[in-house]
Amino acid sequence: MNGTNPILVNSLLWDNESQEIYFCDFDSPNTITIAYSDIQGGIEGIETSNNGTVNWLEGNIDEDPLYVDFPNGDYRLLSDSPCIDAGIDFFEYEEETIIDLDENDYFGIAPDMGACEYEPVPINFDEIEAVKDFILIYPNPFNPVTNINFELNENSYVLLEIYNLKGEKVSTVINTKKNAGVHSVIWDAENRSSGIYLLRLKTNEYCETRKLLLLK
To answer: How far, in Å, CA of 202 to CA of 57, rounded?
Structure first.
């Protein structure tokens, strides 16, 4: 209210009363700028009361953040939350640096959305031997086809999905049980735009995320 101009980056607003964002309908107009954030209802859910402007920038999503235990106030993210690795480490707006994080400031390949950075369970390297953490992607960068190879030391259910940087799933490449051994699959991104994508491979005991770079 009263002529404010907040900027939200790497933020998460979900399941609050009425609207996640509300502009008062009196006093000076307001402006809010939002990027790389998960806002319930998206831009359509913001109530401006005809008293201001919403700058809806890149990277925003409208997906259930999948809290660990929302009713009891545990706002940590579950391992399959769309908010994990969906934020940004460096962000400028109107020549002002808003976010400038070192890679040691967050887990994974990018910051998470929200206040609680997801911390993966510590890995027992003895257990990893049961499902070998081998994955090879070539070529990468690619245009428009890349080969994805991985190896399992035992039979396992395999889920291999591709996400864009908004946290939106763009393709399910594998979703079935696989026998032990080397497996190969092709992802054809002919109908996708250039940019960075995230490959997430999950087995019964292991999860790994890799970057893919599509150059057209």
So the answer is: 31
- Judged on CB neighbours under 10 Å (0-12, 13-18, 19+), 104 is exposed
Residue with tokens 């700058």: 55
Q: Residue 14 — very low, low, confident or very high, per pLDDT cuts 50/70/90? A: very high
Measuring CA to CA, which residue among 55, 46, 42 is closest to residue 94? 55
Q: How many Å from the N-terminal Cα to the C-terminal Cα in the chain?
A: 45
The SS3 assignment for 3 reads: coil
Q: Strands 30-35, 7-9: parallel, antiparallel or unpaired by DSSP?
A: parallel
Q: pLDDT per residue over 166-179, tens digit each?
A: 788 999 999 999 99
Interatomic CA distance for residues 63 and 195, integer angstroms: 22
Given the structure tokens 């939350």, which residue do they identify? 81
| pLDDT at residue number 208 | 83
Contact 147, 140 (CB under 8 A): no
Strand partners, 69: 74
Rounded Cα gap, residues 78 and 92, in angstroms: 29
Domain ranges of the chain: 7-105, 125-214
If you ran DSSP here, which 8-state letter would residue 43 be given?
G
Amino acid at 171: S
Q: How far apart are CA 27 and CA 51, in angstroms?
A: 9
**What fold, for 125-214?**
Immunoglobulin-like (2.60.40)
pLDDT for the residue numbered 119: 67
Within 10 angstroms of residue 84's Cβ, the number of other Cβ atoms is: 28
